[in-house]
Amino acid sequence: MPATVESLPAARPSTREALLRRRRGWFFGLTGDQVVKYVFQGNAAVSIVVLALITFTIFRDAVGFIPKNHANLVIYRLAGLEFVDLLREQVAAHSAISRYLASVRAGQLARLTKDGGLTPAEAMTRLAAFDAFANRFADTLGEHEALLGSLTDLATSLKERKKVAEDLAEARQNLLGAVAGAPPERAAALRAEADGMTIEVIDFKAEIQPLLALRPEIFAANERQRAALQELLAAPPALPVPAADRPLDKFGEFVNRYLAEMDVTARRLATWNQDRPIGWMEAFNAFAFGRQWVTASFWQDWYGVIPLLTGSLLIAFLALLIALPLGVAAAVYVNQVARPAEQRFIKPYIEFIAAIPSVVLGFFGIAMLGETLRRVSQLPGLDWVPGFPMAERLNATTAACLLALMAIPTIFSLAEDAINNVPRAYQEASLALGATRLQTIVRITVPAALSGIMAAVLLGFGRVIGETMVVLLCAGNRIAIPDLGAGFGVVFQPVHTMTGIIAQEMGEVVRGSIHYRALFMVGVVLFLISLLVNWLAQRIVRRYRISIG
């Protein structure tokens, strides 16, 4: 029977005192178990505090974006920039049709020189009638371009005056704020300097009248343009090389659509109201559903997250499409098929990929992978693939291949653990019933581990959507919503991502500015997506454990 403090005789004080010291503890009166307990509790508390501080910092700076963007949109309307953009959209639509005619001409020129065997001079002669037609179409925009220039000058000057007045008001406020803690002589000088500032008070209602006075000229130019376009549609030229897709018929459809949109634009110009208030939800929606991310613009800054969100999701789903079969297949092979020697070789090497710095993978994508993919896409036998040949070596696919390589270790490790936790009795029962090893894996093992595999996939998704360096170096960084009209070729288009835009622009913005806070709003979106993914993964893992138990 082991000795206790109470059972020890008094004749053995040294042993008794040793047991008492062991019971009472040797570290500030604590036992070893208590020390371990408090150390782990302290680590958990520190983690919670750090997470709370990160969350508070992100949301504190992000919340200030809404009032700043609201003020940004108010000036956009008061200064008449919104009015001018209505005409700008009409001009842009006409220019898009001109680019379509240019693409038709390029196709005709290629057919005449390559297939028809004509010299460039002979081909240009055959295209003279078409060129004259395209030039006449382009000339129909002359009046609108002149009016747009006048409107732009009026609106930008008004906005610039407002910006100067705001800067002076802020400077005056700073001077007055410095008066309180300054010596009397310095305070008097600061107050005199502040009082000497002349801040212009702009009457937007009166200042906007010259811009609105141009509406009759716009409507008259629309009517003249309509007559000229209808005249062009009545006598289109014949193409030197007839095409099966009938490009001039499409041109007629584009022009008719343009004329219908011109009527809509005219009504919007006629009913545009400078006094219409802008709500706070409109300021939020401009971010949450905005399709443009334009900063440091002389005209108007836009902070729409949609181009960045779609770019991030496109790359993440492409990466998972590559990493999922490879990671899960490797996990199944290592756990169910491979011999012990193969397991000791394969598993560490797959997990070693996670140790490669992302910037190294980004350099690899720039120097080798992107250029290799572009050269492969230029092979004559692959011209049937949508998006081939690739126009840019840095695009969504290049970044997705590298992100897939980074996600494979995560998916492999978690999926292998999930498969390893499947009760062996399931597999033994299947084999005892006469099923082959492949049938057991496909119909018993993998379905039993499916919840764990799904959790692995979600955590792999969280891994790739939060990656920065690879997408910043290899995604192409073009801020635009991917063109889904290109079909499968959309995966070869350059995109930008939420993590990439934060890393690229955060070091250049002024602290506290609207641009600064917009980047924090992007960080909030990224934070919420990661939080949702991890929450779903935890739910699936918990359900998996319950089902196994």
Give an overview of the whole structure.
- The protein is mainly α.
- It folds into 2 domains: 81-273, no CATH class; 306-500, MetI-like (MetI-like fold, Orthogonal Bundle), CATH 1.10.3720.10.
- The protein has 23 helices and 2 strands.
- It has a two-stranded antiparallel sheet with strand order 1-2.
- Helix 17 (396-420) runs antiparallel to helix 20.
- The model has no long low-confidence stretch (mean pLDDT 87).
Number of strands: 2
From the 3D structure, determine the CATH topology of the largest domain. Answer: MetI-like fold
CATH architectural category of the largest domain = Orthogonal Bundle
Name the beta content range. Answer: under 5%
Q: pLDDT average, as an integer?
A: 87
Specify the number of helices.
23
Query: What is the helix content?
Result: over 70%
Across the major sheet, the strand order is 1-2
Within CATH, the superfamily of the largest domain carries the name MetI-like
Low-confidence stretches: none
The CATH class label of the largest domain is Mainly Alpha
Major sheet size, sense and barrel closure: 2 strands, antiparallel
